[in-house]
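Duplicate of earlier report; Regulator of the mannose operon, ManO input re-posted below.
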Amino acid sequence: MEANNSEIFLETKGTAYLGVVENGKIILGNAGIEFQYKNPHRGKNIFFSWKSIKSAEVDVSISGRLGQQFSLILDTQAKVRFSSKDSGPILKRVAEYVGKENIVRAPSLLDPFRRAFKR
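Output:
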């Protein structure tokens, strides 16, 4: 899919986990989120329109701090994981398009144990 952002709201360094770790830029615009590879020989940029993003999962620490990693869940049920030092501003912008209620806490490794003890 071709990127068609006519306005860019945020551009920051980031990492995409696409089977392998890819460094580059995360670009947020009026049409969607784009990941631009640092190495131009990798291919075209990856683009996700706002309509194709159902929700986002955020890593939150035990102390409640927002983590650097987050995932976008697409309408095809695919999950694309990213990491950025600017995850807070990125997720605020994503929330404007997908709705605050669709930004959820990612399950942690301890969640199954917590559920077992709550019963």
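Strands lie at 8-17, 21-29, 32-37, 46-49, 53-60, 66-74, 79-83, 103-105.

Merging into the original ticket.
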